[in-house]
Amino acid sequence: MSRIGKAPIAVPSGVTVTLQGNTISVKGPKGELSRTLPADMIVTQEGGEITVARPSEEQNHKALHGLTRTLVANMVEGVTKGYSKTLEITGVGYKAEPVGKGLKLSLGLSHTIQYDAPPGITLTATAPTTVVVAGASKELVGQVAAEIRSYRPPEPYKGKGVRYQGEQIRRKAGKAGGK
pLDDT tens digits, residue range 71-121? Predict the structure, then answer.
């Protein structure tokens, strides 16, 4: 039995969970999330807990058991607390400015990049070199942060670019100097 999959998920007060076939909808103070779960998994709601069970001991069912439970737990946590990722921008002249529901990024290219936030995501530039991506969906927050980082990933020589907060960049030595 999966150690992760067999753990029940506590549903806090103020959160409503709706199961219809293999579709689950979770609604809470931070928003509403819906997802279609694998058809083989057995998801039940009893009182204030959600449990996930697998129909057999097949390898495929074992793999989906813990995944399904984690997906549902992330949805419940997302609508109660929310998720956020912080990005740091390093480089001379590199900055981010909030524009409407998105960002205007100046990353050393010949043009600025206009990034519009998808629904359910809020982008804030707490400082010109710090961007906070927040939302209820863990998957979507990570995807948006990765997209913004992909415009100018940190390079190993000077460390310029967009990095996750706390990310360590392995620096390389430059050219050997003249004689």
Answer: 999 999 999 999 999 999 999 999 999 998 899 999 999 999 999 999 999
Distance CA 34, CA 23 (A): 7
Q: Mark out the alpha helices in 23-157 (DSSP H runs).
A: 59-80, 138-150
User: How many Å apart are CA 28 and CA 78, to the nearest integer?
Assistant: 9
Cα-flanking dihedrals φ and ψ of residue 139, to 5°? Answer: -65, -45
Q: Token pair 């010109």 is at which residue?
A: 128
Instruction: For residue 144, give the 3-state DSSP assignment.
Output: helix
Torsion angle in degrees (nearest 10) through CA of 37, 137, 100, 116: -60
Please, what sign has the CA dihedral across residues 139, 140, 145, 149?
positive
